[in-house]
Amino acid sequence: MKRVVILVLMLAIIPVAASGCFAPKSPADVAKAFYTEGNKGDYAKAKGFLTAELRMFFRKPCPWTGKPPAFDTAMDAVTRGGTITRIKIEEGVEHPGFAMIMATLHYADGGQKSDTLQLMKQDGEWRIMKSSLLIAAPAMPLLR
User: Fold this and answer.
1) Which residues are CB-neighbours of 44 under 8 A, at least 6 positions away?
2) What are the backbone dihedrals phi and psi of residue 30, each rounded to the nearest 5 degrees, phi first?
3) DSSP E strands: which ranges in the chain?
4) Three-state DSSP class for 139?
5) pTM of the prediction?
6) What is the pLDDT of residues 64-89, one digit of tens each?
7) How many CA atoms lie within 13 A of 30 on its CB side?
8) Which residues fall within 8 angstroms of residue 137, CB to CB, at 6 or more apart?
9) Is 78 helix (H, G, I), strand (E, B) or coil?
10) CA dist list (Å): 119 to 59, 73, 79, 98, 133
């Protein structure tokens, strides 16, 4: 009988404990992961934190140049060649399905830049739909 009780308790506890491991990340976690992956040069992972629409933007040819905006170049400009030393989330506002995060990126040369990110829930996960630094990057001269 004791074994049955222990087995029932384990079966009840394991799904609850495991559900915490797979819970959606917060908007602040997504922002930090986006910058971290971009800083490491893993642009494919960084791009995975973007909404489908923003990822599409980086695949569509620009009508003036005929080439898509270069995500890698834009991300490299945001991270200053992978020199982010600290990502500080200054503040954030979260509503059902929408969030805005203000972050400060600190660089190895002592400089810093502020970024405002807008996120939305897409397929149950927070995704970045706009980053002020990414759009203002040198790779996007027509969007500034």
Assistant:
1) none
2) -65, -45
3) 84-95, 98-107, 112-122, 125-131
4) coil
5) 0.76
6) 777 777 888 889 989 999 999 999 99
7) 31
8) 73, 74, 75, 77, 78
9) helix
10) 20, 22, 19, 6, 14
H helical segments located in 22-108 = 27-40, 43-47, 52-57, 71-79
pLDDT per residue over 92-130, tens digit each? 999 999 999 999 999 999 999 999 999 999 999 999 999
* Cα dihedral value 14, 19, 20, 22, nearest 10: 130
Residues making up the chain, counted from first to last = 144
Question: Which two structure tokens, joined as six digits, stand for 82?
Answer: 């992978």
Euclidean distance between CA atoms 105 and 87, whole angstroms: 5
Question: 121 forms bridges with which residues in the sheet?
Answer: 126
Contact assessment for residue 69 and residue 58, using Cβ atoms and an 8 Å cutoff: yes
CATH code, residues 25-135: 3.10.450.50
Tokens 């898509």 belong to 68
Q: What type of residue sits at position 34?
A: F
